Amino acid sequence: MLNCLQMRTDDQNDQTPMKGKAIISELRVKFAEKNWNETFQLVRRCMEKSRDESKPCEPLVRSLERLQEEFNVSSMNATKSRLETIAKQQGMGFHINEATCYLTADLFYVEVLLLPCGAVQEVKVASHGESPAPSESLLQLLRSKHFADFSVKLGGLFAQYNIPGDNEIKLKLLASLQYLGKDLQQLSLFPRLESAFREPKFCDPQVDMINNGRVGHLIAGKEDSPLTVQFYVPPTDGAETLDSHLDPVIQAAQVTVGVSDMTHKLQMASVILQPPQLDPQGHPVFVPASEASNEALPACFLLRLQPAITMVTSLFQKLSQITDVAVPSVDLQWAPLPKLLMRGSPSANSHCETLDNDETLVRVPLPGGETHTYILPRGAWDVPAHRAAVLDSVPFTQPAHVPALLELLRHQCAINTLLSSCVTAQFASPGSVCDMHFEVRPESDTSFSVTFLRPDTDSLAVLLVNVLNPHQITCSLFGATSDPSMDEYISSVITRCMSVPETMRTLYSRLKQITSVPLCAGHRATTEAENDGSAPSSAAVMDNNRGPAAFCQTAAVPEDGFGVSASAVSAAKSELLPEINASTSANPYTFAPGAVFPHCVGTNGQMSVNL
Q: Cβ-count burial of 395 within 10 angstroms (0-12 exposed, 13-18 middle, 19+ buried)?
């Protein structure tokens, strides 16, 4: 306690240190025989008599907080004091009526009923004009004496009801928000479009609703939590990845209101036509704007994204085209999309390197000890068309905007999921062996290419990944095989697992199967002739998922490494689609062989590079 007060004394006596020490010495003597309760009450009285009424004395606030951390909450008074401090920290009022504490704000209050021993009997939350409703989450936090978590939860509740404006505007915005919530609930009951993408039959119904529902999966708002929309979760289809044991991150958004520099017409009643109807295109019919009950208010609705989403420039601009409301961009910091995705993953930094030519290398470990290295040329990604920013909220003014906004956000989430899979590694063992190298380049705002070395030769192949929409991803393979079914097969793989490394491993195994079959078959025939009709050689046995059991090489590999010829790159590039050839780079797949694929083939033909 005295150490805390000394901070205050030192602040006021920077030029008189001896005087400050004398004051502390006197305080130590004066309060040597005081108990915790008396000291605690003293600090509270000092806080209430702050010289600046607009701002409590910061050193005393810190002192009180430290005292409370040490003070055992075992009485009613102690619990009341702790709740009072928390209320003041969140900018709320605090009132006591016998055994009941009230933490109050303009549009809601929290009611805490205490027992004589200081334990919490019940916690209720009441929004303006509503009867108090029990809050199990807040009750459990207080009963467990998790006061810090309770303070955080209360802060979120305060932010939920922190509606801008005077009391009259606050009440109107709260009513408008409630009408919006009811309309979104009704939209969720409309049948989906017949042409809407359907998840596989084995897909979890909730995952299907999250990814394909008109308004995702709605979690009804309560007094202690706002209406929440869950709208994207990566479908894994049981993909074998190192982090498959982790729960997937569900992209969600809280529906609330926020201040706006301009006035917007917000609904003051339901805007869905009654009885509910669908237009010829299968979309819900809304009440005409001229007939809708609305009011011009200096605010707009918000989708508060949890977590925030990294969006590229083109998709960011489409948000405003849907809503006619400008998305604030003053404070946004723009950077290459992969850089922002890696910044959001702490594990990526420990597996990322930057070469002298500004190319970023990321090592991605896979099950079975296999490791991929992905190269992302900075010059290709650091251009205006492929720069992005982290967005934490999206403004809108009507429920009709929500389905289109969610589809756009899902589109970006699908792109981010694929790119994150090859730039945000979970972990990699020290000195891990590099099995394969890949270069990832952007081709448009919704597509990218992956260049890799073919398993049968020293030439390169290119996989073009095009995210047409959040439900349709197509792949086109160039320079590797003439099998027309390969594109469809790889497209289905990447759609199911949403992982570039898993897709490339599957593709590489399939290509090894294709190139190994003729040679292995001939070898088997020779063996059978030599053995006069004996059983087939096991070298011909194939595993559809892992490639051939025995890899029959069709090309000799130099012992000191391999060369990547410019002609191989040109051959792959010549087969690309027109939009790829029209890339801003004169030759997007040309790079120095040593920089991208260093000499990493040993005498056993295995790629092994220590990065």
A: buried
Burial (0-12, 13-18, 19+ Cβ within 10 Å), 265? middle
Amino acid letter for position 575: E
- Which domain does 64 fall in, by range? 56-161
Cα angle vertex 451, ends 448, 454, to 5°? 145
Question: Tell me: the pLDDT tens digits for 460-519?
Answer: 999 999 999 999 999 999 998 888 899 999 999 999 999 999 999 999 999 988 877 654
| CA atoms of 540 and 520, how far apart (whole Å) | 6
Q: For the chain, how many structural domains are there in total? A: 1
Q: Is residue 107 part of a domain?
A: yes
Question: Which residue, among 439, 295, 290, 427, has the nearest Cα to 349 in the 3D structure?
Answer: 427
Cα gap 330→131, rounded to integer Å: 41
Q: Which of 249, 251, 253 is nearest to 229 (CA)?
A: 253
Count of H helices and E strands in the chain? 19, 20
H or E segment to which residue 100 belongs: strand 100-104
In a domain, 498, yes or no: no
Quick: pLDDT tens for 293-316. Answer: 999 999 999 999 999 999 999 999
The answer as to whether 316 is a domain residue is no
